[in-house]
Structure formats: C-alpha cells, structure tokens
Design a protein that fits this description.
Pfam families: Metallophos (PF00149). One of its GO terms (biological process) is lipid A biosynthetic process. It comes from Gracilibacillus thailandensis. The protein is α/β, with parallel strands linked by helices. It contains six helices and 16 strands. The protein has a single domain, classed as Metallo-dependent phosphatases (Purple Acid Phosphatase, chain A, domain 2, 4-Layer Sandwich). It has a six-stranded mixed β-sheet with strand order 1-16-2-3-4-5, covered by helices on one side. Strands 6-7-8-9-15-14 form a six-stranded mixed β-sheet. A two-stranded antiparallel sheet has the order 10-11.
C-alpha cells in the first residue's frame, strides 16, 4: 500500500512539474509561424512577405526584447504589421514599448500599426500613439496605403479596433482599387460581418490570443466576444471563395500571464502570385 501511494505521489509530481514546464515554455518562448497565401492578382513570379506581430501586451522577451528583435531581424521581411494591443490597459510606463518601436524601425522602415482595445482603454493612449509616430511607425486606423516594393505593390488597409467601435470601414476603403491585392489590418475579427468589402482579399487580426488556454483536440476554451469554445480562435479561415481571415494567437497574455498548449508566436506571411 505504501509503495502504491509512493508511485502515485511520484506520478502526480511528474505531472505537476511537466505542466509547469509546458506553461513556462508556451508563455515565455515564442515561435515564428509560417503562412503562405496564393493570389491570382499577382503573376507567378511575384511575391512579398509580411511579418505580423499582435497582442504583445508590453511583454518582454529577453532584456529590452532583444530575443524578439533579433528574430525579427533574422526573418528579413518586406513589411511589418502590428495588429493592436502592443500595450496593456494597465501599462503605466511607455519606456519599454517605445524603445522596442525605435529598434523595430531601425530593422525595417515599413512598420504599420492599428489600435486594439487595450490601447483605447489605456489613459496614456495619446502619448503612446504620438510616441509610435515619433519612432517612425505608421498608424493606419481607418486609412489605407499603397505599398510599393521592388517589382510588386499591394494595398494595405487598417481600421481602428472593432471591438470598441473605433472602426470606420467606409473611410478606410476610400480610393481602394478592387483589382489590386488588398490586405486589411483589424485588431479584432469583425464577427458582425458575413462579408468584408469586395476588394479585400485577406484580413489579418489578433485579439483572441488563440484562446490563451487551449485543450488538446478541443482547442480554445474561451475568446473575447465569442464566449466558450469559439469558432474563430486562431489560424486561417475561408470566409468565402475570395476572402480569407487569419487570426494570429499573439505574443503576450492578458488577465493571467499563462499560455497552455498555445505557444507565443508571430507570423511570417508570404503572399505568392499564381496568375498568368
């Protein structure tokens, strides 16, 4: 009987330690997820790359985010997009995040940002937004830009956070051409829409944290705006024959600093032509 209890105690101890290691790994070590998107709006020899960062929540990966910045430098992409919640609603010191922004634009001058719900709920919002602009990061709330690269161009659209009603799709779409590759940045996936404007090919979002806590087979336990066992938790979704939604599960955490079966990540996206 004593031997049985000892084995049970050892087994439980192994489970607890393994669980703790898994939580630490998923929460504090990030990965680079890779995604390839095909489009007939580009020729077969045309392509471009985007790195999506989302939901950092002022988290640090190494001293002054050195590990994160080193990896961003390593992947060497055409454009970097940040889809909101770079800070947390409770962030009261902007030094770390603005230092990160400064180093980020030294790596790549094509950095675009749309606000998330935590930016809108933070009393330092205006100082934060101005600080990003001073560092050379382009705010794209309810605006669009034509991104010109070597041999290829595409339209990049941004909206303010839909979950806090700061989006204005009509204004964001002004001047957009339907025949060009068009990517929308939206912190939260706009679940009130059954279809985005016709010109939009791909929507890049965050907000859900992939559920932050996930269960094997079942997936995300809960996500903001969707409740328990959400449909749109993380990954690529076909909205219709012509439009896709990608939800990055993000780098940081909110409420509790724990990720389970849901490693912190950023996403390297390659948009590749299949036309002509």
């Amino acid at each position: 009987m004593r031997r049985g209890r000892m084995f049970l105690l050892i087994f439980m101890l192994v489970i607890v330690i393994s669980g703790g290691v898994k939580i630490y790994y998923d929460t504090n070590l990030f990965k680079v997820e890779k995604l390839e998107i095909a489009t007939s709006k580009l020729d077969k020899d045309q392509s471009f790359t985007i790195l999506q960062l989302t939901d950092l929540h002022n988290k640090q990966f190494g001293d002054n985010n050195k590990k994160l910045l080193d990896e961003i430098k390593q992947v060497d992409v055409d454009v970097i997009v940040m889809t909101g919640d770079l800070i947390d609603r409770k962030t009261d010191d902007l030094q770390f995040v603005l230092d990160f922004a400064d180093k980020l634009t030294m790596i790549n001058s094509n950095v675009y940002f749309v606000t998330g719900n935590h930016e809108w709920e933070n009393p330092l919002r205006e100082s934060f937004i101005q600080g990003l602009a001073d560092k050379g990061i382009h705010l794209l709330d309810n605006q669009n830009r034509v991104i010109e690269l070597a041999g290829v161009s595409f339209q990049l659209i941004g909206v303010g956070d839909p979950s806090t009603n700061h989006d204005d799709m009509e204004t964001a779409m002004l001047g957009v051409h339907e025949e060009d590759v068009t990517i929308l940045l939206s912190h939260a996936p706009d679940l009130s829409r059954s279809k985005y404007p016709e010109a939009i090919d791909l929507v890049l979002s965050g907000h859900t944290h992939g559920g932050q806590i996930r269960l094997p087979i079942i997936g995300a336990v809960v996500a903001p705006g969707q409740g328990f066992f959400p449909k749109y938790d993380q990954g690529l979704f076909d909205l219709n024959k012509h439009q896709q939604l990608y939800i990055d599960s993000g780098l940081g955490t909110s409420v509790i600093d724990v990720r389970i079966f849901n490693q912190s990540q950023m996403t390297l996206i390659k948009v590749k032509g299949v036309g002509k």
